[in-house]
Amino acid sequence: MKIILISILILLISSVSVFGEGINNPRVVELVSSALANNPILKAASASINSSQAMESVESSFNDPKIEFGIDSMSTKMFSLSQEFPFFGKLSLKGDIAHVDTKLSTSTFIDAKNSLIMDVKLAYLQIEFIDRSIELTEKNRQLLKKLVSIAETKYAVGNGLQQDVLKAQLELSSTLNSQGILKHDRITAVARLNTLLYKELISDSFEVTQPLTMTPFDKTFEEIKALAVDNSTVLSSAKLENEKAKLKRDLAQKDYYPDFMLKFSYTTSNPIISDYFTAIIGVSIPLWFSKQKNEVNSAEFEIESSMQRYNAALNNVSYKISELLSIIDRSKEQIELYKNGIIPQAELSLNSAVSGYQVNNIDFLTMSSAQSELYKYQIDYNEFIKEHEAAIAELSAIVGLELPFEGSAPKPPQRDSSL
Question: CA 51, CA 45: separation in Å to the nearest integer?
Fold first, then answer.
């Protein structure tokens, strides 16, 4: 019985592991590439860029010329051709505004791309974590099956209690329930990933071939914020909105000046009066200055509004950077604590409990509690790594750059050599 207990405890404790490779994992790269190629939201954002680009030439073009034809009761016929000409600089400003709209569409596309990459990483991390939890739960179930057998054997020979047998069977049933929950969670997680990849939701054939690892990360708040100021799509969009508002103000100021119209007409009359040409130049009169003034004022307010939106966006980005860096630092500390302290101590506690149970110095409940605690710590250990990597993935999306998402895993806690 001692040999059996030692072997199954080694099986459980050696299951303490961490994630494998990071974003260099070929499977993750493949998933990201597939999502970028097939996701309909990204395709829609790309189409918006093309739409905005097409509008640039439209906005900077003249209005269509007009052709008129008329005849009166004296059989006089008149043909005319006219063209409107906005004041100098108006068309170029309209084209510049349309070009900023294209930049905004491009920024929206990049933001959607960054969010999609982040979502794929988070979905992969969730599936990886669930698979690790299923693996640990299965090993824990196998251990409990052995413990049930041992408790039943001790009870049969009068060295154990029926309560120990019932407790072990209850723990085993609870483990089966946990496995069922995890399997359903996996189906949901795979469906989420398939949604991002634009695949059938019901497919559950996804396999994690190479797990992820904890990524070394030592960037400071100031470094990350500087990167965000230069690359964040949220901030760049706010800057572009400010640029667009300034162009709209310049265009509104142009309305103080007149537009022009040039018209040529040809009139053919009766034989007594010779045919003749007429050239007409028309000028609009910006008489209602209050209208133009209100347009300019409105644009000025929009400039101020866009500046404040940028400040608010920068403030929010700074907060998110601080929050995610805090999560990264906290999870890193917890990983080290579990690796070097909690899990080794839990292993020693379980080892001691096993030895005590073998010689009837402690009861089954104490040993079972030690085993349950170690299992919980192993799950927590992997969850901290998932939390660490998820924070880096979110930080990459916020900053607008692919931050390091790979690296060597910290060495897993080493089991007690005495086992």
Answer: 10
Q: Please answer whether residues 153 and 94 qualify as being in contact, where contact means their C-beta atoms are separated by less than 8 angstroms.
A: no
Q: Among all chains, which residue has been given the structure tokens 């409105």?
A: 298
Task: Evaluate whether residue 58 is within a structural domain.
Answer: yes
- Contact 174/144 with Cβ under 8 angstroms? no
| 23-69 confidence digits (pLDDT tens) | 546 778 888 888 888 888 888 888 888 888 888 888 888 888 898 88
Contacts of 44 (CB under 8 A, 6+ apart): none
Q: Confirm whether 53 is domain-assigned.
A: yes
Highest mean pLDDT of the ranges 164-178, 353-367, 380-394: 380-394
What Cα–Cα distance (Å) separates residue 276 from each residue in 77, 272, 282?
11, 12, 20
Could you give the 3-state DSSP secondary structure of residue 85? strand
Per-residue tokens: 121: 């990483």
**What is the model's pLDDT at position 372?**
82
- Whether the per-residue pLDDT at 385 is higher than 80: the answer is yes
CATH number at residue 11: 1.20.1600.10
Domain that holds residue 79: 2-399
What pTM was computed for the model?
Answer: 0.79
Residue 415 lies in a domain: no
Tokens of 7: 């072997």
> How many Cα atoms are found within 13 Å in the side-chain-facing hemisphere of 196?
26
Cβ proximity of 76 and 267 under 8 Å? yes
Q: Is 211 left (phi over 0), alpha (psi -120 to 50) or beta?
A: beta
DSSP class of residue 78 equals E
pLDDT at 211: 62
User: Facing residues of 77 across strands?
Assistant: 71, 268
Number of domain units in the chain: 1
User: What are 87-96's pLDDT values in tens digits?
Assistant: 888 888 988 8
- The answer to whether residue 134 sits within a structural domain is yes
What's the rounded Cα separation, in Å, for the pair 134 and 136? 5
Identify the bridge partners of residue 85 per DSSP, sorted by sequence position.
260
Enter the DSSP assignment of 201: T
- pLDDT tens digits, residue range 285-325? 887 778 888 888 988 999 999 899 999 999 999 999 999 99
Q: Which of 199, 196, 208 is nearest to 134 (CA)?
A: 208
